[in-house]
Give the backbone structure.
Amino acid sequence: MIAIGCDHAGVEMKNTIIAELTAKGYEFKDMGCNGEPCDYPVIAAAVCEEILSGSCEKGILICGTGIGMSIAANKFKGIRAALCSDSFSTKFTRLHNNTNVMCMGARTLGCGLGTELAEIFLSTEFEGGRHQRRLDLITEIENR
């Protein structure tokens, strides 16, 4: 299950991702919003809490630029959120950083590219190995 949420700027992209990737077998838990004005930190918190509770494996957050969502999501201990805007970075944020939340900007990406990046994020597995040692170091920093 993938938790997905957006602010009012990202509704079209969120709905496109849900429609196109549900058809490919992904399951989503929609955490809002549905077009009403909202505060992106509230949506980021809802998505992160779904992941931290174990009810969802990964999350997707969308706002105008993706920056606000990524800042908010990274405030949660145990969340590794990355702003994704190209296929290479999106792939490697999963391969090397084992990110569990991707953030995107609806005003900087089109729905087509956003959906393509979401599929890359969801289908790429963490490589582990030498990268796990580095994640462990990040966790040590997080626990200070």
User: Anything to note?
Assistant: The mean pLDDT is 97.
